[in-house]
Amino acid sequence: MLTPAFDLSQDPDFLTVAIRVPYARVSEFDVYFEGVDFKFYAKPYFLRLTLPGRVVENGSEQGSYDTDKGASEVSEGGVEDEDGEFDWEIEQSPYEEASEGALNPQYHYGFGNLRSGVFQRLQDELSDVIDIKDPDFTPAAERRQKRLAAELAKFDPDHYLADFFEDEAVEQVLKYNPWWIDIYSEMMASLGKSQEQENHAALVSFSEEEKYQLRKFVNKSYLLDKRAHRQVYYSLIDILLAYCYETRVTEGEKNVESAWNIRKLSPTLCWFETWTNVHEILVSFGRRVLCYPLYRHFKLVMKAYRDTIKILQLGKSAVLKCLLDVHKIFQENDPAYILNDLYISDYCVWIQKAKSKKLATLAEALKEVSLTKAQLGLDLEALEAAALLVQEEETAVEAARSVSRRQTPSSSSEASDSEEADSTTSSETEGSDSEQGELTGSESETADPLRGPSLEGGSALLIVNGGVCRNSATETSDGSPGKPPASSPALGGSRPLIEELGEHLNSTVQVSELKDSAAGR
Fold this sequence. Notes:
Order of helices and strands: EEEEEEEEEHHHHHHHHHHHHHHEEH
Number of helices: 15
Number of strands: 11
Strand order of the largest sheet: 1-2-8-7
Mean pLDDT: 76
Helix content: 40-55%
Structural class: alpha+beta
Low-confidence stretches: 81-90, 98-103, 432-494
Distance between the termini: 130 Å
C-alpha cells in the first residue's frame, strides 16, 4: 500500500482532510472515522491518522473528488481537544513531490504521450495491468524490442495448428454480427442520398447508461502537437482492433476475460507502444492474436481489421460508443481501471470534438493496407505446409491399412475354398480309383473269354429306374448273402451277357408302353 500526500486543516466548524490520490479508482473510496481514528482507502493508497482529539459526529460530514487534480477532500465535524500525548500506530512518511531536476530522464506514455512518472510508485500494484517493466525509464525503441521478443516466446505452434485445422468454433464466431454491422448496412443503403458522414451520426444511438457515462466525464481541451496528434489517431486504431476482436469472440456477451483480452491485444495499452504508420499497427495486432487469446486464427485478424474500417467509416459516434464500452469493461475490472485514467477517459472526451473527415481519412488509410501471414514474422506458411504434408502422409498410411484389413478376410476365404476344392478333388480321385479297381477286378473273373463276360457266383445285373448296372449279391444286415429285390430278379449266370441285356431291354420297353397307355386312359 502507498501513503498518499495529504493536508490537514480546521476551521471553527469543520476538520478538512485533503488527500491526493492520482489514478485511484473513484468508485471505491472508503472513509472511516470514529473517536480519534481516521482511515482512508482507495487502492493502492491507504492513510491512517490518529488525531489529537475526538471527531464530533453530527451528520454534517461531506466529501468531494477533484478529477483534474486527483484529490479527495473529506470534511468532518470539529475536533475536541484532549489532554495527553498520542502516537502514530504505524510509521508513515507523507508523499513529497520530487523536483524535476532530481529525477532521472523519464519517458512518456498515455493519451497523446502526456503522462509520465505514474508507475514509479505504482509498479508493484499495477504489474498485472501492463507487460512492460519500468515504463518511466524504458525508451520506445527498447519497449518494441522487448515486445517482439515476448511475442516470439509466447507463440505456440501446436495451439495455432489446432485452431487452423479444427476451426469449427472460429467459423461460428466469424458468422456473428456485432451491433455495428446492421448500422453499417443502413449507412451503405443510404450512401447514395448523402456523402456526408455527419448525416450518418443519427444511425448510432446511445443507451441511458452510456449517456450517464458521458455526463461523468469532465470537459477538457487537449493541446497536442502534430506528432502527438498522429499518435492519438494511430493508437485509436490499435484499441479499436482489440475491441472488435473481443466483441466478436464473445458474441457481445462480456465476461471476466474481456478486460484481459482488450489490453493484451493492444500494444498501446500493455506496452505503451508508439507508432509510425498504419501497417505496423496491423502487423502487431495480428501477431498478438496468434499468440495470446483462446482463438488464434488469421481469419479473426482480418475480420477485426474489416470491422474497424466499418466503425471508422460510421463516424465519431460509433467510435465513441466503442470507447464507452471499453471504459465500462475496464472500470469493472481490478486493476485495469488505471488504463481508463491513462487512455480511455481522455479518448471519450477527445473523440467528441474530433473531425469526422479525419476519421474517414483514417479509415481509407487503413483500407489501403494489406496484411499477409508472411508479414507477421512467425513462419506460418512453412508451419502450415509441414502440417499439411504430415496430414497427407497419415491419410495415405491409414488408407493402406484399411485396404489391407479388407483384403485379409478375402484371402483367408480364398485359401479355405482352395483347401476344400483340393480335398474334394482328392476324394473324387480316390473314389474313381476305387471304382476302377472294382471294375477291373470283376472283368478279370470271366470264365470263358470266347463267350464274352458272364455273371458268376453272386454277381447280377439289376434294372433300377430303367437303368442297368452290375451289382454284387445283396447282403443282410448281419453280412450274410440275401435275395435280390423282387423288382430286380437275378439273371442266370451261364447265359451270355448280350442275350441277357437284350431280353431285359425288351421287357423295359414293354413296361414303359403299358404305363403310357394307362396314362392315356
